[in-house]
Each structure stands twice: as structure tokens, then as C-alpha cells.
Amino acid sequence: DALSRNTTLPANSGDHLCVNIYTIEQDNWLLSLQKADPDISRILQILKPEDDLECKDIRKNYTVKNHVVYRKIDDQLRLVVPRSARWQVCRANHDEIGHHGYSKTLERIQSTYWFPKLRK
């Protein structure tokens, strides 16, 4: 891939090099993955104001803020992590706290994020 290969410029390329750098903020990255996740898409559908199905439990436990799905836990909002991003969230939080082990990593993840079976 382009990130790991040493690229060489053509001989007539001149002295100027143009580099485009794209960054994705964490919330935008997770928002994109949330929209692609079928479980979270169902929650979003239920939470829409015009949808009055028998889904009291979903409405009670989830909310949408700025198009992002959150789980309500102890009067705090925790970002719902799509299935496809769970490993990355766990790994990033483990690495950011300096590899302090399961308990500290779990505590850090639970302070911001939620997904089913997080403790496993």
C-alpha cells in the first residue's frame, strides 16, 4: 500500500511536492461506522421521533445527539461502538493508558463507550 512503500518521483517532477493529508476525527469515524452497523441502524430507526413502536426499552436506554447514538448509563452518555470498531476502541484505550491491564483498560473504555458484552 502507499503508506508503506518508498515512492520515487519522476525525473522531471521539479523541486515541488504536493502532499494531501486527510484526518478523520474520532467522532466522525465512529459516526460513519455507526451508520453502517445494522444493530445501531435499528436503534436509530426506533429513536426517530415519528417512530412510535413498542420499543420503550430502546428509547429509555439510548439517545441520539448530533446524529451519534449514545447509551444512557447512570445519567451519563456513552458512545455506542459499532461491532466493526470494538477491537480498535479496546486496543487504542489499552495503548493510551500505557498497558495497565484489563481492569484499568475496562474502566477507561466504560467511562466513554458502550457495547454489548464489553466485559468479555
TrEMBL record:
According to UniProt, the name of this protein is Integrase zinc-binding domain-containing protein
Which ranges carry the Integrase zinc-binding domain? 81-120
- Please name the source species: Pectinophora gossypiella
Q: Name one Pfam family in it.
A: Integrase_H2C2
InterPro entries documented for this protein: Integrase_H2C2
